[in-house]
Design a protein that fits this description.
The protein is α+β, with helices and mostly antiparallel strands. It has 4 helices and 11 strands; from the N terminus they run ββββββαβββαβααβ. α3 crosses α4.
């Protein structure tokens, strides 16, 4: 049976909430775009400016979704196509409980989503891409192209733009950036201790004190999930 594209709402722990929203027909194509912000530093006398990387920008995914209810007739009793399209329009509306638009995951296929096969230093960044594209809906443009005699829309195309969603903790953990002095960063997880972190990064749990001193921890036992620690290089 063909895999049907669908959207899933997620809670703040990235767990599915409610039933998936299935598209009527699989899109014929989608476009992924990823940009970087680069500043130009002008130096008199040079042929071109010096380029300085500033930051990455959110990856976006654009696609068109087609909806049609003419199979149920085109007369005065025709089924409105908005019964289908409104479910997708809700994805850009503010939720009264979270006071924000919902986090979603666009799913199509199993384990083959673009970006899920990156290796090397990027391997830790592709985990969320195996099952789809975690995102917020950035834009929905609805175009209604067929109507019944009473003006009820019965065919529509939705142009949808998605923006990849990542938390600060996810990005720090996935990137595992090194500063010029090879200082690492570590996001504290539930159950972490300084000795366990020291064992992971130094291979010696007894080297917890440099981490505590570097981060000016008055109480080395008071680690809370989400805390960002700098891990200094070994001496």
């Amino acid at each position: 049976m063909p895999q049907i594209a669908q959207f899933r709402r997620l809670n703040r722990r990235f767990e599915p909430v409610g039933a998936p929203i299935r598209v009527k027909f699989n899109p014929t194509e989608f476009t992924l775009a990823k940009n970087a912000q680069v500043a130009e530093i002008a130096i008199p006398g040079l042929d071109a400016p010096i380029l300085q990387f500033v930051r990455g920008q959110s990856e976006t995914l654009a696609l068109e979704l087609f909806f049609d209810t003419t199979d149920d007739g085109t007369g005065v009793d025709a089924k409105p196509v908005t019964e289908l399209t409104d479910e997708f329009y809700k994805l850009i509306k503010i939720d009264r409980e979270t006071h924000a638009i919902p986090i979603c995951r666009f799913e199509w296929g199993v384990g083959e989503f673009p970006g899920s096969h990156m290796q090397g230093q990027w391997a830790s960044q592709n985990v969320s891409r195996v099952s789809g594209f975690v995102c917020i809906v950035d834009q929905v443009r609805q175009r209604f192209t067929m109507f019944n005699p009473n003006g009820v829309p019965i065919r529509a195309t939705l142009s949808v733009q998605l923006r990849e969603y990542k938390t600060l903790e996810q990005q720090i953990t996935q990137l595992n950036l090194l500063s010029p002095d090879h200082t690492r960063v570590h996001v504290v997880q539930r159950g972490d201790t300084l000795s366990r972190i020291a064992d992971d990064v130094y291979g010696d749990p007894r080297q917890w004190r440099p981490i505590a001193d570097h981060n000016r921890l008055d109480n080395p036992l008071a680690l809370t999930p989400g805390m960002v620690l700098e891990i200094p290089p070994t001496r």
